[in-house]
Amino acid sequence: MPDVPIQRSTDDAVGIVLAGGRSRRLRTAALGPGGKAALIVAGESLLARICRVVAGVVPRVIVVAAEQQPLPVLPAGVEVVRDSSPGAGPTSGLCDGLRHAALTETPSPRPRMAFVTACDSPLLAPAVIRLLLEMACEPRVRLVVPIIGGHPQVLASVVALDLVEDVTAAAAEGVGLRSVVERLREQQPAAVRLVTADEVVKVDPGLESFFDVDTPADLARLEARGIPSSRH
To answer: What is the C-alpha separation between 205 and 198, in angstroms, rounded?
Structure first.
């Protein structure tokens, strides 16, 4: 059997789903007015599917969407935040999500960590979310980032809420989330937990959690797996 870590409570974590991307590579012909988030995969929208998976692991899910973006029907309890800086990219969107998570009062404990993902990973596995959150419980760790295919997967990572000012500074400079990772590694090496593919395959043997739908070819790959998709 796979060596799966002992699961701890995720009550102090939230999920942040970034849904405001422009989906240029997927082409508008493949999309409805809601963009990639509203693309139907196996009978439900991509965004609803991701929210459902994340909600199975953490008590709160926050969607960050573009200002005028129409959204599909989402699971009950999902919180929606609109981009405060339209078109500024995922770094700015993450900023909005982190601030909302920290300021909103709920009966749950104040969140310490956020699992961050985009809305376009239809094969995201709950076990991967749990694994990354488990690693975030290691002493001094504030950022957990898988390295898959030699690349940091910043849109499948765990970010401490107290990094919000670092993310804000990166957004103001117009740099990406990978810059936040690099800076924190330079300043506080112990604060960044890089997760190897070998660690992830223990809970996701095919690394399918990191398959994202960016192009028509990606949709074709889903179809080839027997997972139907449509824009309606």
So the answer is: 9
CA angle 171-136-189, nearest 5°? 65
Give dist(CA 200, CA 93) in Å, integer: 26
For residue 50, what pLDDT is reported? Answer: 97
Host domain of residue 143:
13-221
The CATH number of the domain where 61 resides is what? 3.90.550.10
> Per the domain annotation, does 148 fall within a domain?
yes
For the chain, how many structural domains are there in total?
1
Q: Quote the pTM value.
A: 0.90
**Rg of the chain taking only CA atoms, in angstroms:** 17
Instruction: Report H helices in the chain.
Output: 46-55, 90-103, 126-135, 164-173, 177-187, 197-200, 216-224
Share of residues in the chain with pLDDT > 70 (%): 86
